[in-house]
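Section 3.1: Structural characterization of target chains.
Under the original work plan, the team committed to producing a structural model for every single-chain target entering the pipeline before any wet-lab resources were allocated. The record below documents one such target. The sequence was received from the expression subgroup and is listed exactly as submitted; it comprises 122 residues.
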Amino acid sequence: MGKSLYERIGGESAVIAAVGKMYDKILDDEELAPFFENIDIDRLRRSQSAFVTYAFGGPNQYTGKSLRVVHKKTVENGLNDRHFDLVATHLKAAMQELNVPGELINEALAIVGSTRADVLNK
């Protein structure tokens, strides 16, 4: 069996870097930033890095709640498809800045896209 996406993008350090850059972009985005008020961003970065590691085929160290549960209140506060797409765009840009090859970015975005229904509680 071939290497996981997690391994092919560079493992833990690459995931942490991509998630960090993504959240920098999210917090600078006037449409997304309000969803993160009063949130411990450092804790969120750690949790998101663990989730992305798992989603990309790395070691499962994610101990958080399900995507539906963790996003329920945010959806009630207006999170929708446009916001989901903006987050995916910021992840793509972060990975591009880190020189992740396009085919791996596309693979990552396909995995992210597969979570849409759970994140948006559809």
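Helices lie at 5-9, 11-27, 41-55, 67-76, 81-97, 102-113, 116-119.
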